[in-house]
Write a structure and sequence with these properties.
The protein is α/β, with parallel strands linked by helices. Helix content is 42%, strand content 15%. It is built from ten helices and 13 strands. The strands form four sheets. The chain has a six-stranded parallel β-sheet, sandwiched between helices. Strand 4, helix 5 and strand 5 form a beta-alpha-beta unit. The protein is globular, with a radius of gyration of 19 Å. The mean pLDDT is 96. The structure holds guanosine-5'-diphosphate.
Length: 318
């Protein structure tokens, strides 16, 4: 059984400034947690084994959310594979080993739906892991993420550690990366339509054919699921965390357009990669445990755009 979480237990959120980590911090604070442990990259470089070991020894957290990593969209993934492999392998290995060393009560490791084979049957079930070739545009990231799952399982087998692995679908929300070269599609589209609206342009270019299908989960739903899994889930292997529906990229572009710049036209740049044709998770196991998402896509896009306007757009010279 999972250890009960007390509001005064030390909880380390590794990666607390990122999209996921900041949402987990919000969720834990809303739930009354009083003892959150965090470290900025300047304070502790999670790729540095000695720094991580020293930090964990000093703080001795009872619970760890391992949600730190080098992440990015299709272009960043395919052009910076060395960074995606090195950074993520080092971060996972250092935090998992240190968590074992200091006797962390439970660790939740966050993977990604790109761990599954490119042509996995849809919706994708957890046993599809390692049953076929990966999508080449995110292979480096996927290999690092699979290594993290296997580490959690190995530490469970060899040392009896209560380390679990959650696999989220494509995420979006506050604190996302809106840089057009390195972001994922949803924040990229918010930025492109907003840039066009400000510039008085009525055409926006979307990468690829618009036909790939993706599932999008608001990061506040993901954070809620992570806290739920920390308290209610104890099995080896990955457990999927999805929204339950997917959309074509062309449909997604239409939804963002309707919120940000109604009436704009959409062009498709087919010289850019489509990536995997479809990625929809089967989240039946999580639903059977009793968790469901609550933020519909259109509502999530609108609130993320509000966040973008308040936090990103005005601070940049245009
Ligand atoms: P993926 O799920 O790992 O493929 O990551 P992305 O979120 O980067 O891309 C999802 C899909 O959206 C791919 O088919 C991209 O080609 C497509 N896409 C369309 N326009 C954009 C864009 O401006 N940025 C990104 N990152 N993807 C885009």
């Amino acid at each position: 059984m999972s250890p009960a979480v007390d509001p005064d237990d030390a909880v380390f959120v590794a990666g607390h400034r990122g999209l996921v980590g900041s949402a987990i911090v919000r969720r834990l604070e809303q739930g009354g947690h009083r003892n959150l442990v965090t470290a900025t990259r300047d304070q502790v470089d999670l790729r540095n084994q000695a720094a991580v070991a020293g930090f964990m020894d000093e703080h001795r957290p009872r619970f760890v959310y391992l949600v730190a990593g080098t992440v990015g969209g299709i272009m960043a993934n395919s052009t910076r594979p060395a960074e995606f492999l090195y950074d993520n392998l080092m971060i996972h290995a250092n935090v998992i080993e240190a968590a074992h060393h200091v006797g962390v009560g439970k660790l939740l490791y966050l993977g990604s739906s790109c761990i599954y084979p490119r042509l996995a049957d849809q919706p994708i079930v957890e046993p599809a892991l390692l049953t076929g070739p990966l999508e080449p545009t995110n292979e480096a990231y996927a290999i690092a993420k699979i290594a993290g799952i296997k580490m959690c399982d190995a530490y469970r087998v060899q040392y009896g550690c209560d380390f679990v692995s959650a696999m989220p679908t494509n995420l979006y929300g506050p604190n996302d990366n809106f840089d057009l070269q390195s972001s994922h599609v949803l924040p990229a589209l918010i930025r492109k339509f907003d840039d066009a609206r400000r510039a008085g342009e009525d055409r926006v270019t979307v990468w690829g054919t618009g036909r790939p299908r993706r599932e999008f989960l608001h990061v506040d739903d993901l954070a809620d699921a992570c806290v739920f899994l920390m308290e209610h889930y104890d099995d080896p292997g990955p457990i999927n965390v999805g929204y339950g529906e997917d959309v074509a990229i062309a449909e997604l572009a239409g939804l963002v357009r309707d919120v940000v710049h109604p009436g704009a036209s959409i062009d498709f740049d087919t010289s850019k990669p489509d990536g995997t044709p479809r990625k929809l998770l089967d989240s039946t196991r999580l639903q059977q445990l009793g968790w469901r998402p609550s933020i519909p896509l259109a509502e999530g896009i609108a609130s993320t755009y509000d966040w973008y306007l308040e936090h990103v757009a005005p601070q940049e010279a245009r």
